[in-house]
Amino acid sequence: MLLDGTNITLGTCYYPEHWNRSIWADDLTRMKEAGISVVRVAEFAWSKIEPREGEYTYEFFDDFLDLAWEAGMRVIFSTPTATPPAWLTEEYPEVLNATRDGDLIRHGSRRHYNYNSPVYRELSANIVERAARHYAGHPAVVGWQVDNEFNCENQTFYSESDNMAFRRFLKEKYGTVECLNEAWGTVFWNQTYTAFSEVHVPRRTNSGAVNPHLELDYIRFISDSVCSFAAMQADILRQYIKPGDFITTNGMFGHIDNHALTRDNLTFYTYDSYPNFAYCVDGFQAQEPFKDRWSSRSLAEVRSISPKFGIMEQQSGANGWNVSMEAPAPRPGQMTLWTMQSIAHGADYISYFRWRTCTFGTEMYWHGILDYSGRENRRLKELREISRKVANLQEAAGAVYEARVAIVRDYDNQWDAEVDHWHGRILRPSEDALFTALQQSHVMFDYVYLDDFVSVGQLARYSVLFYPHPEILTKQRVKLLEQYTASGGKLVVGCRTGQKDLRGFCVAEPLPGLAAYLTGTDVPEYTLAAPDEADVVINWDGVKLAAPVFRDMLAVCGEDAQVLARYEGGCYAGEPALVRNCFGRGEVYYFGSTFDVATVKTFLDKLSVKEPLALLLRLPESCELAVRRKDNTDYIFVLNYTKEEAKINLLFPLEELLGGMREEGEVTVPAYGVKVYRTSCMEREAINRGKA
Ligand code: GLA
Q: What is the phi/psi pair of residue 371, to 5°?
């Protein structure tokens, strides 16, 4: 069984419908020979099961599944709802998504449907049920993927069905139109409604501004729509799947509460990891300074959604649509590096996108392991080498990523930061800086999303929490943070903490609102950082920290609070800029500005969490460090993402698993190279004691 903690498994994505069936058997044999034992199929193949409305033909995938079974291959079968067929969209145009101006998004690409069309729900339920009833019992099938990449390419929905569903969503949430008016502050600019039928999903407006509280609820509504569409499918699948088979979905895109989606519907979540986006020559995603190392941030997020997770699509070739995205082929070693990046972060299933590069269609330049001809090539050779290395890592299956620091998030703030320009301007750079500083200081971290399901016990696993700018706070979240801190945790927050409520209204209480008691801080004044005051710094024991984007002037308001740093320069010169409040057995730090990399590094230093393995090994900033722990053994991953070799220093002899050698002292990690060291916790403790 995948992800049961006993194995790390390799798979691939295969499209039998793209190839002459005469090559299927050979492809399956070659996959097996290269170490692949699972294929994912059918996510875009509705017409292969229902070529015309009400006409069903199962032979195509029956034949494929039989061959797969004979080849000893396991299959993940997908529901094909990401690409409704032409007969469907032609007959029922109301299933299509629309632009903000209400124009229908036409057939021809993918994900052109909307989640709320009753017709689409019915036809989707039908195809899911037909596919599940027919294929779920096949012995080769081990699990199901629901749809493909919810919200990929488009995260906004403006069809008439969405309008109607939005009104139902609001009616359920607010009960009466009066309560809705209150919750959205519609008295402002005379937006008051007299009936739910007057409410619309966001539309084109003068100046582009839309009621911000409506927009925030609209994103919640989209998330709700995705979750209920997925639930409709998962409920059907559960009736048919064999005991032990799983239900998953893949991707990780915006405007979805992926935690709720997973909790309510899936056995586990899978992510699609395309680190080579960072090398796109058209600047599609210029991810400086880390390039492909940024994918580690997404992997941390997936881990938060689903502690057990797999990679449904792991990049193996160049990116390329005929209309966009141009990237070089992965260099020798990068396919291995990205595989190990995923494993280092906790993935025990890695499935390559895709086995063969398609010779036609929009993705004809999106390469897989094999090129068009299917001939032997470098990437297939590298895959065989990966399989050999993964065999050496099998004992690490099920090991848990070891983080003692977490970045706290919640969907309300993430989505409000999209809607509210001021909020986005402070949250995004701080989150980027946190990731960069944590990576460069080799501090493993998790994301924790504060929702109704998080317990103090879960938070207590971390000695330090960074919750950079929780503008929106609720009593319940504050209580959780109070309990965490009281029991010894250290919490760091930044400017604008507590300034909004769940509706996205600014609170009328003195700032930081609900967080005043917890932080022991008062915010008598605040300002955006003016360009002519760009040189303002915060002096913390002689270390001068930048105060970019926004500044809260602080004051202490509790007996246990103390000013640690003050502004230098600008209007707030001499005023408190950093307050520490001792709260129970823990501490809360209120930093008055946004966080840049140097600021985060200073916190990591002062809070004694940087370089957690410094007694065991030393490594340059250019290498990522990740540790997975199982029973009493640590698996220490060192990943070099650069084209230069890196030198690391092992202070004790350690067993390296990929090469099967013991290593000590200065060790070279080749360009794009990876090392995985095994050490027992006892060994580590002895080392720590010896050095202490
Ligand atoms: C996604 C999809 C795949 C394919 C690849 C490459 O992640 O799930 O179907 O389109 O990207 O574009």
A: -80, -170
Per-residue pLDDT at 692 exceeds 60: no
Residue reference for tokens 């993918």:
110
Query: What DSSP designation does 379 have?
Result: H
SS3 of 539, please?
strand
570: left (phi over 0), alpha (psi -120 to 50) or beta: left
CA 452 remoteness from chain centre? 19
| CB 363 near ligand 1, within 6 Å | yes
Q: Which residue has the higher pLDDT, 254 or 688?
A: 254
109 CA to centre of own chain = 24
Note the pLDDT of residue 683.
80
Which residues are catalytic, by number?
149, 313
Count how many Cα atoms sit within 13 Å of the Cα of residue 258 in the half-sphere of its side chain: 28
Q: Report how far ligand 1's centroid is from the alpha carbon of 251 (Å).
A: 9
Is 148 near ligand 1, meaning CB less than 6 Å away? yes
Residue 1 vs residue 254, higher pLDDT: 254
Residue 281 neighbours by CB under 8 Å, 6+ apart:
326, 327, 328
Would you say the CB of residue 147 lies under 6 angstroms from ligand 1? Answer: no
Position 603: which residue type?
A: F
Number of H helices, E strands in the chain: 18, 27
Dump pLDDT digits (tens) for 108-153. 999 999 999 999 999 999 999 999 999 999 999 999 999 999 999 9
Neighbours of 156 (CB within 10 A): 17
